[in-house]
C-alpha cells in the first residue's frame, strides 16, 4: 500500500494506535536513508555516509548507504536490524515532521502497517497527547533541529568546494560487474589546503568533526560487502575511486 503522510489531527486520529515493536519491515526496500549531523559519529561506525545531489532542486544531501543496489537494505534480516545504530529517519516512522504553513507539523502515514488496534494510543480520552505521542513529538523535534543544522553543514561544505564525485566498482560472485555512481565524498586534499581561518570556523561551528566522520565512514563500504554474503549473489570484491571532473555526470542517487 502506498505511503500516505497526512497532518496528525487530534479529532480525525483520536482513536488511532501505533504498534511499538522492533520490526523494520517497512524499510526493507530502502537503500538510502537521510542522515543528520548529530548522529554522524554513531552512523559512521556502522555504515557509509555519502553526499548526493537532487538534480531537480540542485540541493545536496547527506545519506547513509544501506545497500549497494536500489531496493536493497542489507541491514535487515527479516524484520530485524543488523547493527548497533538505526538512522533517526528510519526510527521516526510512521511519523514525520514537515512544514505546515509557517511552522513545522507532525505527520503520520495513515497506511502504515504499524497502525494497530493493539498499539499505543496517540491521544487521551480528553483529547490531549498521550505519553507515547509526547515522547515521539520530542524525538521529532530533535530530528528537525538536527536536520536544520545538517542543512547548514552541507551548505558550508558545498560553499568550500570540498566534494568530489566517487565511484564504486563491484564484482559479484557470479562474475558480473557494475558501477555504483551518483555519490560524492569529502576530498581530503582540498580540506587540508583550506586557510586556517576557514578551518577554525568549521571547528567553531562543530562541522570539522562531522567532516571527518563522513570521511572515516567510507571504510564501512566493506561492511556492506560483508553483509552481501547473505544474499543470492554476494559481492566478491569492491574498488573505490574518485571520478574525474570531465567524467562526472550529476545523478539523483546512487545507481548502476
Automatic annotation (TrEMBL):
<dbReference type="Pfam" id="PF07277">
    <property type="entry name" value="SapC"/>
</dbReference>
<dbReference type="InterPro" id="IPR010836">
    <property type="entry name" value="SapC"/>
</dbReference>
<protein>
    <submittedName>
        <fullName>SapC protein</fullName>
    </submittedName>
</protein>
